[in-house]
Design a protein that fits this description.
This protein is an alpha/beta fold. The protein is 52% helix and 8% strand. This is BTB domain-containing protein.
Length: 215
């Protein structure tokens, strides 16, 4: 071949910027660090790095850590995994953010208090559940909001009080309230309102004297 003929090279392959070098799912999960991080808590597709003393306040999570340590005693950073509903990840995040401000629960959002009460119920931290519910009790919440919180946290007394309030108030039940109540609770409220209205229109007659033993 002619020595002066230019040599041809294949075109360079396009480069993909920031391409991952591993298929490890941990690398692509959103992660949130908290002070003194030791334990990796994977909640569905989110990773939280939580200090061991905080994790240990939840009896169920403590058991997961102890089991992980037995299985891998030389690993300095243990990972425990929780699989639950899609909302549980944000509930965990709200809970551990609130953890850093336990002395200032009064400044916490209602959503964070509900999340923390729910997580402490599911994963066994009774003291935190009690503190959150006490703070929620002090809030000026609407009747349907209290009903929904009661159902979420298994607080029967909250549901009962909400239904009683709806039964006794003068205003009509709105469509939104009816949908929030559901069939059974709405029937209970409607029946109580009907009975109250009937008693007001037709008050019970006094019993005859002879039935009271009066001559």
């Amino acid at each position: 071949k002619d020595m002066h003929t230019p040599m041809s090279f294949p075109p360079p392959k396009p480069q993909v910027p920031n391409a991952p070098t591993s298929t490890d799912p941990q690398e692509v999960l959103p992660s949130h660090d908290f002070i003194g991080a030791i334990i990796k808590l994977q909640v569905n597709d989110m990773v939280l790095r939580i200090s061991e003393p905080q994790i240990y306040k939840f009896a169920s999570l403590k058991k997961l850590v102890e089991d992980a340590r037995k299985a891998d005693p030389h690993n300095p950073t243990l990972t425990i995994t929780v699989r639950d509903s899609s909302e549980i990840a944000s509930d965990f995040l709200n809970t551990f953010r609130l953890f850093n401000n336990l002395a200032e629960l009064v400044d916490s959002s209602t959503e964070s208090l509900i999340s923390a009460a729910l997580i402490s119920t599911k994963y066994d931290y009774p003291k935190l559940r009690t503190l959150c519910i006490q703070e929620l009790e002090r809030r000026d919440l609407g009747v349907i909001e209290r009903l929904q919180i009661g159902r979420t946290l298994g607080l029967t007394s909250w549901e009962d009080r909400a239904c009683k309030e709806l039964s006794e108030r003068a205003e009509m039940i709105t469509r939104e309230e009816m949908l929030a109540l559901g069939v059974d609770a709405y029937f209970q409220v409607a029946s109580a309102r009907e009975k109250q209205l009937r008693d007001e229109r037709y008050p019970p007659k006094p019993a005859p004297k002879w039935r009271l033993g009066i001559e």
